[in-house]
C-alpha cells in the first residue's frame, strides 16, 4: 500500500513562494539594499550547527552519550530461543563485540497502528532501569521488509543468558540445593525491590521470565506487561484503575482473579511466592486450568478467605453472584514442612491472599529464611560449577 506523504515537518525546506514573516519584513525595511528588499530569502542565513555540549560534557551530564540504533548486519543469528505472545527470541553473535546476545523481535501485527504499546512500554522501562538483576537492553535495530511493503521489524538486543528458570527446573539433571534457591531468590528480590522502589510493577513474574547464566547470575526479563504505578493506588489513597488482565494465570494473585483494578507492587510478590515454591517442588505449584479452577487451587493451598483474614474481599467484582466459595483451611505449613519453619514462614507471607498483608520485597530480603543455614550459595563456588558441568555434559 502506498504510504501517505509525510507531513511538512521541521526538516522540510520553506516553500519558495512564502511571504516574509513580520520579523523578516521589518528587517527588510531596515535594510538599505534595494536588492534585499526584493528578495526576502536572502535574509535567511544558514548557520553551521554547533552542538550545545561536547560528547564528554554529554557523558558528564547524562552518564552516557547518544549512541543511536545498531544495524542488522552486526548480528549473525544462530538458534531460536523462545516465542511468546509479543515476539520471538533468537540467539545471535554480535560481530562488533564478539559477544553472544538474544534478539527479541517485536511482532507488528498492524503497522497502521505503529509499534504496539506494550513494546513501547517495555523499551521505555528497560531504558530507565539499570540494575545487576534486571536484564539490560544493549541495542536495538530495525529491519525493513524486503520489498518495502508489509511491516518493518524492530529488534531489542539483550546479553545472552544460558537458561531461563522454567527450563532449568524442567531439566531433571539440575539439582538445586536450598542454598542455590536462596541465592536465586536473593537476586530476584533485589531486582524486584529496585523496580518497586522506582515505581515499576512487572506484572508477569514467572519462572520463564527469570534468566540465569552459568555464573549463577539471575536477571528479571520480559517487561512486556510492566508499567509505572502510583503507590497510592494500591494503598487505596488514589482512585485510578489498572487492567486486571495481567500476569500469567498460574502466577496470578487472587485479587486480580477476583477482578481488582486498584493494585500495586504486591501483585509481583505473589508470583515470586509461586516461583519460590516451584523451585522446591520442581513444578508450578498452582497450575489452574481456568480462572475459577485457579481460585479454587489457591483456596485449597492458602485457605478460603473470610472477613478476618481478608476484610471486604467479597466487595471485589469477581465475588458478585458467588454465594459461597468452597471452604478450605490453609495448608502451606503441611506442603513445605520438609524445608523448615523459616521457609514455611516466608511462603506464608508471600502467598498471603490479603494483598495488604503480603510481604514486600524489602521485608522479604530481611526475612529469617535468608539468615538461617544454609545461607545463600556463593556463585563463584558452586552454582557456577554445577551449571557448567551440565552444559559440558550436554555438549559432549
Ligand atoms: P515473551 O514476551 O515472548 O515471553 P521473553 O522476553 O519472555 O518474551 O522471551 C521469551 C523466552 O526467550 C524466555 O522465556 C527465554 O526462554 C528466552 N529469552 C529471552 N531473553 C533471553 C536472553 N537474554 N537470553 C537467553 N534467552 C532469552
Ligand atoms: Mg516471557
Automatic annotation (TrEMBL):
Question: What keywords are assigned to this protein?
Answer: ATP-binding, Kinase, Nucleotide-binding, Nucleus, Serine/threonine-protein kinase, Transferase
Q: Give the SMART domains listed for this entry.
A: S_TKc (SM00220)
* Upper classification of the organism: Eukaryota, Fungi, Dikarya, Basidiomycota, Agaricomycotina
- The molecule here is called Kinase-like domain-containing protein
Tell me which Pfam families the record gives. Answer: Pkinase
Chief location of this protein? nucleus
Binding residue positions for ATP: 104
The keyword rRNA-binding is assigned to this record: no
Show the PANTHER family listed in the entry: CELL DIVISION PROTEIN KINASE (PTHR24056), CYCLIN-DEPENDENT KINASE 9 (PTHR24056:SF233)
What is the similarity comment for this entry? Answer: Belongs to the protein kinase superfamily. CMGC Ser/Thr protein kinase family. CDC2/CDKX subfamily.
Q: Which PROSITE patterns match?
A: PROTEIN_KINASE_ATP, PROTEIN_KINASE_DOM, PROTEIN_KINASE_ST
Q: Where in the cell is it found?
A: Nucleus
Coiled-coil annotation: which residues? none
The scientific name of the source species is: Schizophyllum amplum
**Highest taxon listed in the record's lineage:** Eukaryota
| Keyword Nucleotide-binding in annotation | yes
A GO molecular function annotation here is: cyclin-dependent protein serine/threonine kinase activity
Amino acid at each position: 500500500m502506498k504510504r501517505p506523504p509525510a507531513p511538512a515537518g521541521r526538516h522540510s525546506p520553506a516553500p519558495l513562494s512564502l511571504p516574509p514573516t513580520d520579523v523578516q519584513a521589518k528587517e527588510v525595511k531596515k535594510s538599505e539594499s534595494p536588492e534585499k528588499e526584493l528578495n526576502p530569502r536572502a535574509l535567511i542565513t544558514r548557520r553551521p550547527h554547533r552542538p550545545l555540549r561536547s560528547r564528554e560534557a554529554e557523558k558528564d551530564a547524562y552518564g552516557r552519550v547518544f549512541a543511536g540504533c545498531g544495524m542488522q548486519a552486526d548480528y549473525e543469528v544462530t538458534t531460536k530461543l523462545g516465542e511468546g505472545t509479543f515476539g520471538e527470541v533468537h540467539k545471535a553473535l554480535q560481530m562488533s563485540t564478539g559477544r553472544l546476545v538474544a534478539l527479541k523481535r517485536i511482532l507488528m501485527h498492524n503497522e497502521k497502528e505503529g509499534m504496539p504499546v506494550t513494546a513501547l512500554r517495555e523499551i521505555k522501562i528497560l531504558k530507565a532501569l539499570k540494575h545487576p538483576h534486571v536484564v539490560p537492553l544493549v541495542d536495538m535495530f530495525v529491519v525493513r521488509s524486503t520489498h518495502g511493503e508489509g511491516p518493518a521489524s524492530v529488534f531489542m538486543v539483550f546479553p545472552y543468558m544460558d537458561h531461563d528458570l522454567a527450563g532449568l527446573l524442567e531439566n531433571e539433571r539440575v539439582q538445586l540445593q536450598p542454598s542455590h534457591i536462596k541465592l536465586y531468590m536473593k537476586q530476584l528480590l533485589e531486582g524486584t525491590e529496585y523496580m518497586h522502589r522506582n515505581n515499576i510493577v512487572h506484572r508477569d513474574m514467572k519462572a520463564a521470565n527469570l534468566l540465569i547464566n552459568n555464573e549463577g547470575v539471575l536477571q528479571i526479563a520480559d517487561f512486556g506487561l510492566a508499567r509505572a504505578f502510583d503507590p497510592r493506588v494500591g494503598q487505596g489513597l488514589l482512585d485510578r484503575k489498572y487492567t486486571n488482565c495481567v500476569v500469567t494465570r498460574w502466577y496470578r494473585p487472587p485479587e486480580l482473579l477476583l477482578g481488582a483494578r486498584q493494585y500495586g507492587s504486591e501483585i509481583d510478590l505473589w508470583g515470586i511466592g509461586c516461583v519460590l515454591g516451584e523451585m522446591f517442588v520442581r513444578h508450578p505449584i498452582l497450575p489452574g486450568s481456568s480462572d475459577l479452577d485457579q481460585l479454587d487451587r489457591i483456596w485449597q493451598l492458602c485457605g478460603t478467605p473470610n472477613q478476618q483474614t481478608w476484610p471486604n474481599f467479597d466487595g471485589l467484582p469477581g465475588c458478585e453472584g458467588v454465594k459461597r466459595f468452597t471452604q478450605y483451611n490453609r495448608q502451606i505449613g503441611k506442603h513445605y514442612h520438609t524445608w523448615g519453619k523459616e521457609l514455611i514462614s516466608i511462603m506464608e507471607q508471600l502467598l498471603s491472599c490479603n494483598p495488604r498483608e503480603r510481604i514486600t520485597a524489602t521485608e522479604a530480603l530481611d526475612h529469617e529464611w535468608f539468615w538461617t543455614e544454609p545461607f545463600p550459595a556463593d556463585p563463584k563456588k558452586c552454582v557456577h560449577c554445577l551449571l557448567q558441568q551440565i552444559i559440558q555434559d550436554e555438549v559432549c
